[in-house]
Amino acid sequence: MNFTRRTIAAAALALASAAGPLAALPAHADSGRQLAADGMRSLHKLEAVEPRSRFYARRALAVLVFPSVLKAGFVFGGETGNGVLFIHGAPSGYYNLTGGSWGLQIGGQDFSYALFFMTPSALHYLRQSGGFSAGTGPSIVVINQGAGAEANTTTLSQDVVAFPYNQKGLMADLTLQGTKITRIHPHR
Q1: Running DSSP on this structure, what letter comes out for residue 28?
Q2: I need a labelling partner for 4 at 20 to 30 A (CA). Which of 46, 70, 152, 170 fits?
């Protein structure tokens, strides 16, 4: 799907969120094999352009990669994307990220997210709960590209370290605020 079609799809999703809860929309599950390949390729791309991500990748117990998250908004906004959980480099589960927001916003964007699970309790929570809503589960710190946050023992104490990257399009506010991560079962 090209960027323009993705932007239109994300805009439709954002407008749908104005009519009702975004969580009520069904999560589309891609092929597990394709999602794992896209996730690994996306993670390698992040590690190639963001040195701090390599620091976390070496220390993380698992990495949840969303290779393509579509976000759009016009007052009401929405975002969605499917991802894969890697433990020791092997796919170990598939998840959907969905969120909605409202306020002063306009635009559309396609980007990627990598969440590095640093503690056993955070990984256990994700796997046992089938997912979580940002703010109700493990502590998450988001490191935006170009921000001055350093990769050190202080940030290692966080449960989850998240990197948004690979942005295409125009929109601000790449956070996990208002998102829900839910386990899905992709096609074979």
Answers
A1: P
A2: 46
The pTM assigned to this predicted structure is 0.76
Contact call for residues 111 and 164 (beta carbons, < 8 A): yes
Using the CB atoms, write b or e for 151-182: b if 16+ within 10 Å: beeebeebbbbbbbbbbebebeebebebbbbe
Which H or E run includes 154? Answer: helix 153-156
Q: Which residues contact 126 (CB under 8 A, 6 or more apart)?
A: 62, 64, 85, 117, 132, 137, 138, 181
Domain ranges of the chain: 3-184
CA distance 172 to 101: 13
Query: Do 105 and 46 touch, CB atoms closer than 8 A?
Result: no
Across residues 72-77, what is the average pLDDT? 70
Spatial separation of the C-alpha atoms in residues 31 and 186, rounded to whole Å: 5
E-assigned strand segments in the chain: 62-87, 90-117, 131-133, 140-142, 160-170, 179-184
**CA 45 → CA 88, 93, 126, 161, distances in Å?**
18, 21, 24, 17
> In this predicted structure, what is the pLDDT of residue 156?
61
* Burial label, 16 (beta-carbon count in 10 A; 0-12, 13-18, 19+): middle
Torsion angle, CA of 128/100/114/55, rounded to 10 degrees? Answer: -100
- For the chain, the residue count is 188
